Amino acid sequence: MRTSIDGASQVLRPPADGLPFLRHDRAASLRSDPGSLTIDGEEILAVESDAGAARRIDARGLAVVPGWVDCHTHLPFTGWRAAEYAMKVAGRDYAEIAAAGGGIQASAGALAEADDRGVLDQAEALAAEMLAHGTTTFETKSGYGLSIEAELRSLRLAAALGGQVPQSVSNTALIAHAVPGGFDADGWLDAVEASLGAMLECAPVGALDVFVESIAFTNRHLERVGALAAARALDLRAHVEQFASHRSVPVALAAGARSVDHLACLAPVDLPALADSECAAVLLPGAEVMGAEETAPARALADAGAIAVLATDANPGTSPIISMPLILGLAVRRYGWTAKEALLAATLNPAWVLRRSGEVGSLEVGKRADVLVLDGPIEQVPYRLGHNPVAFAFKSGELVFARPDCADRLSE
Ligand code: NIG
Ligand code: FE
């Protein structure tokens, strides 16, 4: 079916077609002129209206933007950890909570107790909530298994989730998240290395990930995960500089990482090389706020021309947030970013992290029609903090979400 989205006040477009990513010092070159958009089948047919379209949306006063790409989540997981959040708010730190049996171990326990249907029910419900907030592509991670068998299961569940939801889904094997009981860190990576082939058969995996922190793995393990990724032609992603600075960024860059994620404690001396590199800086302001973490040097990263990205980090511990509009709002306030900087970090650049920017992440003729119609101008996305601005969402040309109060704008 052909859909014409007519007369929007703003259509968010890249400065040129075919860009794999846009460095953040160029975010102001995103265009947001008035216009229209036509979707045909699964693709964007034209950046103009179509008189013959069978379905029309009256977008006067509204904005049209690409569907959000949430390139860092920990779906699928089971249950929540609200009691831990109360402890955190009362002043206990992450390491203390982990030592008391909370943290990643607690979610691994919950995953072990749940049956597959229960895990998928929760993940599918979250994916539906994400879709209603405009996320049309997301990443999954394993890492709550903490045994080889459970990691294999986690990857199988991630693959099953990808087959069940409307979104495009990219799977990451977070092979070094916490050191499982009965192993030391090296021993765990030995076991992972021996089973990596089996893991990669469980799901179409695009990247390996590792958590570098005093309570988790070290830079030496980051190098080792990098070598495993390179040997399998997978991308390397890494959770680094979240609670403290371990100078992991130069190590990740040397290992050819596709992204370094968190960066709340990025050492200033490591910023220029990251900004110059083809490695994305994935910032997670939800985790920063919920965990009262330091603030990533996002203004400086953007000014220095980093490939900056925002994501929810959706997980039961540090960031139980699924809403990208909320993340954009937190980022603008916390980082001193413009709305366009936040939008770029939620669309084209995260699509590049997932190697999907040829297909999604910007409104270009021939790209997949992952399109949001927002209920007001783009500047309101960060400003109306907590509000869901999505009036209509299209995934691959299909209308997958329509807000009842906007129904009179749709005609078929
Ligand atoms: O990205 N930092 C490590 N991993 C997750 C948190 C995991 C958890 O607490 O369950 C994160 O913040
Ligand atoms: Fe994470």
Task: Annotate the secondary structure layout.
Elements: E1 2-13, E2 31-40, E3 43-46, E4 55-58, E5 63-66, E6 68-70, H1 82-89, H2 94-99, H3 103-113, H4 116-132, E7 135-141, H5 148-164, E8 168-176, H6 185-202, E9 205-211, H7 219-231, E10 235-240, H8 249-254, E11 259-262, H9 271-276, E12 280-283, H10 285-290, H11 298-303, E13 308-310, H12 324-335, H13 339-345, H14 348-353, E14 371-374, H15 380-383, E15 390-395, E16 398-402, E17 410-411
Helix pairs in contact: 4-5, 5-6, 6-7, 12-13
Bound molecules: N-(iminomethyl)-L-glutamic acid and fe (iii) ion.
Explain how this protein is built:
By secondary structure, the protein is of the alpha/beta class. It has two domains: 120 residues, Urease, subunit C, domain 1; 285 residues, Metal-dependent hydrolases (TIM Barrel). The chain contains 15 helices and 17 strands. Strands 1, 2, 3, 4, 5, 14, 15, 16 and 17 form a nine-stranded mixed beta sheet that branches. An eight-stranded parallel beta sheet has the order 6-7-8-9-10-11-12-13. Strand 2 and strand 3 form a beta hairpin. Helix 4 crosses helix 5, helix 5 packs parallel to helix 6 and helix 6 packs parallel to helix 7. The longest helix is centred in the middle third of the chain and has 18 residues. Bound molecules: N-(iminomethyl)-L-glutamic acid (NIG) and fe (iii) ion (FE).
